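Lecture notes, unit on protein representations.

Consider one protein chain, 82 amino acids long.
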Amino acid sequence: MTPTIEHPTHQMNFAIVTTNERKYAFSYSTCVAVTNADGRWVVRENDWGPTTGKHLNWLDDGNKMLRLPGGVFEEVLLKLAA
């Protein structure tokens, strides 16, 4: 499968990259979410600011309770990307 890049909010600072069976969401150049085996978003906590917060809210409808701390998210990202 050829990787694709989309900008679902029509803003260049928020992109979703699809490769093989996985989707990766980027706020600016930082990966902030990845889909799991069920196709659901695994979302990182907002360690940046309001614009990234808007991107995260778009991904998880603002459900901050399910967001992972940065270190935990990085571990999950590495496992899912392998």
